[in-house]
Amino acid sequence: MDIKDILLWHDVKVSVIVFVSGFVLLVCLTQFSVVSVFTNIALVCLAPMLALRLLLTARSAFLRSEFEHPLKSYLSKDIEVSKDKADQLGEKVAEFAVSMTTKLRGLFLVDDLSDSLKVGCPEGGS
Predict the structure, then answer these.
(1) How far apart are CA 18 and CA 46, in angstroms?
(2) Could you give the residue ranges of the DSSP H alpha helices within 64-121?
(3) What span, in angstroms and rounded, lies between the C-alpha atoms of 85 and 35?
(4) Residue partners of 1: CB distance under 8 A and separation at least 6
(5) DSSP assigned state of 110
(6) Structure-derived torsion over alpha carbons of residues 40, 43, 44, 49, reported in degrees to the nearest 10
(7) Are 107 and 116 in contact (CB under 8 A)?
(8) Integer angstrom CA distances of residue 78 from 66, 75, 81
(9) What is the mean predicted confidence (pLDDT) over 82-90?
């Protein structure tokens, strides 16, 4: 499943989940701060994992068996980024930063009067 399948609604259930969750996120961002929204999302993700871990630890203590972490396969996966990928990403970020800085410099130092007026008066100046 890739982004094209989601946008073209090939699997309706997945597309509905993606778009409804995006809509709910946007509505929440209109009412609450970004930090508050993402903190609450993190807590919603953490709560079931914590409950699962505590229940399985209690079960293994009750049954007097050795505890095996249920997500051990995910914890043991190696997370690494190759040097080439990091260099490519760094180059793209640097190019973006340079282009944005150049554009902002032109806007705030009034290189083009009409563009700077559009930034200063977004309603069109009237």
Answers:
(1) 20
(2) 72-75, 83-108, 113-120
(3) 29
(4) 11, 14
(5) T
(6) 170
(7) yes
(8) 25, 8, 10
(9) 93
pTM: 0.56
CB 25 within 8 A of CB 37: yes
Q: How confident is the model at residue 22 (pLDDT cuts 50, 70, 90)?
A: very high
User: 2 to each of 12, 17, 89, 122, how far by Cα in Å?
Assistant: 13, 14, 21, 37
The separation between the first and the last C-alpha atoms of the chain, rounded to the nearest angstrom, is: 48
SS3 content of the chain, % helix, strand, coil (to 5): 75, 0, 25
> What is the helix (H) or strand (E) element at residue 78, kind and residue range?
none
Residue 39, Ramachandran bin (φ over 0: left; ψ between -120 and 50: alpha; else beta): alpha
Average pLDDT over residues 75-81: 87
